[in-house]
Amino acid sequence: LSWSEALLLGVFPPIGLEINDGEGHPSSSHQTLKGTSKWATSLENLLEDPEGVKRFREFLKKEFSEENVLFWLACEEFKKTQGKKQMQEKAKEIYMTFLSSKASSQVNVEGQSRLSETILEAPHPLMFQKLQDQIFNLMKYDSYSRFLKSDIFLNHKKSEEQEENSPEAQTAAKRASRIYNT
């Protein structure tokens, strides 16, 4: 399975680091904003959260534009690639998956036709940056605002709020409050 196939199947590792509590569970309690509240502040915050990326992908899939976020994620991962051979391989995968006229998940970007396969011979970490920026802006000014009004986002927000207001969450908060206020 190539990394682009893994990305398309949704088994690609998420961007960013996950902070864990002492028991190895994901922890976001140390942040002032979390989950949907943080996602609603900016597309950047949404893309930093693996759960946010998952929900945004669900939404974009319904809008038939999931390739935009997949391309953006692939470019982010590409920037971290070490070694010329690995860069050439990944650059070719990105080109064949998202940019070529025969791409399986073609993104719609300006200047795409000027990007030929010859550029793949001498890859560099920022070679897709302009195209990635175009896709980011397309998502930011188009899909992202619709995502914030979508059932996927609103239902996730509602379930988060129900979780926060549950008796178990309130009891844990009271215990924590007693511990820190003694």
From TrEMBL:
It holds the Pfam family RGS. Keywords: GTPase activation. One of its GO terms (cellular component) is plasma membrane. GO terms for molecular function: G-protein alpha-subunit binding; GTPase activator activity. It comes from the Eukaryota. GO terms for biological process: regulation of G protein-coupled receptor signaling pathway. CDD domains: RGS_RGS10 (cd08741). Residues 158-182 are annotated as: Disordered. Residues 42-153 form the RGS domain. The keyword Cytoplasm does not apply. This is RGS10 protein. It comes from Hylia prasina.
